[in-house]
Amino acid sequence: MQVKIIDHPLIQHKLSLIRDIRTGTKEFRELLEEISMLMAFELTRNMPLEETQIETPLTTCTCKMLSGKKIGVVPILRAGLGMVNGILKLIPAAKVGHIGVYRDHETLKPVEYYCKLPKDVADRELIVIDPMLATGGSSVAAIDMLKARGARHIKLMCLVAAPEGVNMVNDHHPDVEVYVAAVDSHLNEHGYIVPGLGDAGDRIFGTK
Ligand code: URA
């Protein structure tokens, strides 16, 4: 199982709060945004820098700035939306694409229903986001959709994963690095991650 667990103490603390059944919609959203921002900090650790001349009030010096790598953030609808703003706080110039997939009840296969991406998707470093990496079906389908449209550099960022989901993404897309705050025990018979945090979409949007 190839996965990077971001175990910063602040993330782990906030993750425990977000798991708690007593955490309401407002706090859930705020925590998800904060965790997403902290995770994005780690994901962007190796972004390339270039040297540039800066004039300070005292002198001119050689400083470092990001070397213009273009980032794209791609939430998987709908729960992925809850992670967008946290990432944009750190990378405000990132473009945002959206992908919608649902699971057909009969075939159990993911079906694409929405895809709107930045035009230059092939040239961007893409961060696909979805709080819950459960079976891995939606993530694999989303990454398939991105690659079919030319994307070449993709990372997947989730809050909580089941081992089954990580393995599924690893098997189908070994080039995609998977970042999570935790890998939980297993999936239950309804496809929920255990212990998990319940239905992330319902908890973000208050639709339970
Ligand atoms: N999606 C969720 O929102 N929660 C899970 O536990 C699994 C899939």
From TrEMBL:
Binding-site positions, uracil: I193, G198, D199, A200
This protein's GO CC annotations: cytoplasm
Pfam families the UniProt entry points to: UPRTase
Described purpose of this protein according to its UniProt entry: Catalyzes the conversion of uracil and 5-phospho-alpha-D-ribose 1-diphosphate (PRPP) to UMP and diphosphate.
Regulation: Allosterically activated by GTP.
Keywords, in A-Z order: Allosteric enzyme, Glycosyltransferase, GTP-binding, Magnesium, Nucleotide-binding, Transferase
Enzyme nomenclature, EC number: 2.4.2.9
Any one Gene Ontology BP term: uracil salvage
Organism: Sporomusa malonica
Cofactor(s) needed: Mg(2+)
A single MF term (Gene Ontology): uracil phosphoribosyltransferase activity
Entry's cofactor comment: Binds 1 Mg(2+) ion per subunit. The magnesium is bound as Mg-PRPP.
UniProt record similarity statement: Belongs to the UPRTase family.
Protein's gene: upp
Membrane-traversing stretches: none
Catalyzed reactions: UMP + diphosphate = 5-phospho-alpha-D-ribose 1-diphosphate + uracil
Name of this chain's protein: Uracil phosphoribosyltransferase
